[in-house]
Amino acid sequence: MTFTENLTSWYSVNKRDFPWRNTTDPYRIWLSEIILQQTQIKQGLPYYQAFVKRFPKVYDLAQASQDDVLKLWQGLGYYSRARNLHETAKHVAFELDGVFPTSYSELLKLKGVGDYTASAIASICFNEPKAVLDGNVYRVLSRYFGVDAPINTTSGFKVFRALAQDNLDVQNPAMYNQAIMDFGATQCTPKKAACNTCPLITACTAYSTGTVSELPVKIKAKKPKNRYFNFLVYLSKDKKTIVEQRKANGIWKHLYQFPLIESEKALPYNALKDRLDSELKVDFDLRLYNKQDVVHKLSHQHLHTKFWIIDLNQLPQKGISIAQLSHYAVPVVIENFIKDFNF
DNA sequence: AAAACGGGGAC
DNA sequence: GTCCCAGTTTT
């Protein structure tokens, strides 16, 4: 049996059941693929179910506000996905009469849809013979064929894309693409690969050369940068606080937060007290909520976070009632604080 | 070509 | 701690 035949045979027995595998509706396939970008199924599944329930059709998503979409996306990360999701929904609903493009090349033009996602939708929904190339596929191909080109370089990408396309089952690209991804996710795993029960073992290059744990090759990421965040949690006598929307490019764009002072290093109590004295010009009580910095770790940044509680009679600017806080999409580090603080 | 972009899970 | 995840966009 060929690599491809072996794989589809394995899939016919070991296929996992997911809600997006019971449909070829491009809206739902697209939605699942965006949610699952750089996201494990275990984490993404509840979000998929929530989105389908809240927005059953692309038109429902198109009519929503960005704030509502971001709120439903809250906690999933990579928030540009949610912004692009909403933009594309509006584009499809209002300019394409609610009909998704039906080819790889047209799908690729949609915001948030790259090579992987266009291939996935084109193959799963329209049987177009385009091989997907995701983290699972890199791993399976690199090991089986013994390819040590780094997967996160342009040259490596070309090698693997050609290899992926060469081995695609052009008669059934939908099944093949899902088979190789499922195989990578459950059998040919990053660590502790299940070689002892692998149907491809006799022809696997990495297994025969003892290099399973060394493949695929990936250029290491840089060390994350340290940043120091001071969130100002205003608290007035009439149970109000202040939130603001992050407007700039960068992390958490368009999410909400307590007013933020970023400092070069840890901000001393007195430095903040003096600064607020001159800015507020009213009586207030300042205290640090967390004695230890909350270190919120992102892929490229470690955020050393302090939450400062500012009690005063009246807010210095327009605020919102504490009761409304739960309606705003906030970063996880803020959501954790809100739960812990319990207002 | 490299960097930016989140958060959670496995080990 | 380190690595990875049904990647895409921006610089």
TrEMBL record:
Enzyme class, UniProt record, top EC level: hydrolase
Domain named HhH-GPD: residues: 35-186
Domain of life: Bacteria
GO biological process: base-excision repair; mismatch repair
Co-factor(s): [4Fe-4S] cluster
GO molecular function: 4 iron, 4 sulfur cluster binding; 8-oxo-7,8-dihydroguanine DNA N-glycosylase activity; adenine/guanine mispair binding; metal ion binding; oxidized purine DNA binding; purine-specific mismatch base pair DNA N-glycosylase activity
Cofactor detail note: Binds 1 [4Fe-4S] cluster.
Keywords for the protein's UniProt record, in alphabetical order: 4Fe-4S, DNA damage, DNA repair, Glycosidase, Hydrolase, Iron, Iron-sulfur, Metal-binding
SUPFAM superfamilies linked: DNA-glycosylase (SSF48150), Nudix (SSF55811)
Cited PANTHER family: ADENINE DNA GLYCOSYLASE
Family: Belongs to the Nth/MutY family.
Function as written in the Swiss-Prot or TrEMBL entry: Adenine glycosylase active on G-A mispairs. MutY also corrects error-prone DNA synthesis past GO lesions which are due to the oxidatively damaged form of guanine: 7,8-dihydro-8-oxoguanine (8-oxo-dGTP).
Name of the protein described by the UniProt record: Adenine DNA glycosylase
Organism: Mangrovimonas yunxiaonensis
Source lineage: Bacteria, Pseudomonadati, Bacteroidota, Flavobacteriia, Flavobacteriales
